[in-house]
TrEMBL record:
Signal peptide: none annotated. InterPro entries: Endoribo_LPSP/chorism_mut-like, RutC-like_sf. Residues 17-150 form the Endoribonuclease L-PSP/chorismate mutase-like domain. CDD domains: YjgF_YER057c_UK114_like_1. It comes from the Bacteria. PANTHER family: ENDORIBONUCLEASE L-PSP_CHORISMATE MUTASE-LIKE DOMAIN-CONTAINING PROTEIN, ENDORIBONUCLEASE-RELATED. This is RidA family protein. Gene3D superfamilies: RutC-like.
Amino acid sequence: MSRPLPQTVNGDSASERLRALGLKLPVLAGSTYLVPHRTVGSTIHLSGQLPFKDGELLGQGVVGRDVELETAQELARHAALNALAAAAQAVGDLDRVRIVQMLVFVASTPDFGQQSNVANAASELLIEVLGENGRHARTAIGVAGLPLNTPVEIQVICTAV
């Protein structure tokens, strides 16, 4: 079944579109070992984002065994929301964020084969919020395991506009 292309949600700014979706940017927890983003020239590399909400990991397990596709998609959307928070922190304003590339890791069984469908949920959120600035190059891959036994991790490269 073919899905329609994601569209930008109504709103004049990315922040307004985010609110229209009933979402807000989370506050990212600090870490002793890494920073949420690193700028090199005009490129901003974001640390891998897990589906944390208020300091709590929203899911664990392997997609195709412990985690259903729809749950993995929701976790991917939340990881993408965390990536948006890191990007906004890096550039100072959500409206200045342009996503260049996204890498989606899906802890999945060898026969799962729907990593792109998991990643689509994250891509849709970025486009709904950022419009054309949310369209990006992307890779989705299945892996044997991820930190904290999370089903999804997302890494993003972006730039400021």
